Task: structure prediction
Amino acid sequence: MGLIDAAVCPPKAVPLLERAGVPYLSVFAGLPEEELGPASLFLVSVSDTEADWIAELERLDLQSPCLSLIWSQAEMDAIVMHLQAFLFADIGDNMTAMVRFFNPRNTGAVFDIWGEQLCAMFMGPFEQWAYRGRNREWQHIQNESAISPRICRSVVVQLAQADVDALTAHTEPDQILASLIEGGNVDGERPYLERFDDFIPRYIRAVEGGHKGTGRSPALLSAFLSVCGEF
Result:
């Protein structure tokens, strides 16, 4: 199966799946986020990994990371229910937030923060989970638990402020890079890793020295990088 974060390519993902004629479900079904429509999160059945539509999906993933691969014997509707159980976390002060573990750029960071016990629960129905994100090669997460596969209907996920800060720091470079693309400072047609690898040294310089006084606001950091001629 494949998990597609269509928010990064909303005009392309659903039409591709419809042309392919493959079964797919929205993981946001029944949630307020379902209103996102073509920008939702989709679980799709994959029976032929050599199919043309899979090749096109991989090209989309290289352009803007959006694809995770899942190996599981569970039914698709059961997996949707399981994924929904992990979508939101309690971040304190009676607030909840969506944890975008399904964005391949975030998967490894989220798993690190979740910890061993929560990751084991999440991987319950999966034999393997694979993603690329910020990596050139596929990263594989194996389910090494001896416990029988289990679908979770509801899970209490709590993130401490330190966890929230760590995820914010992890996602900040991509937020700024997106702002720079939108502003015309970076060529968004280049493959993601080319863009990211060119950007990250400049980002690090800004964070370590040049951005003092910006309060680490992504918008201000983006403006700082542009004004200073980093792009």
About this structure: The chain is about 40% helix and 15% strand.
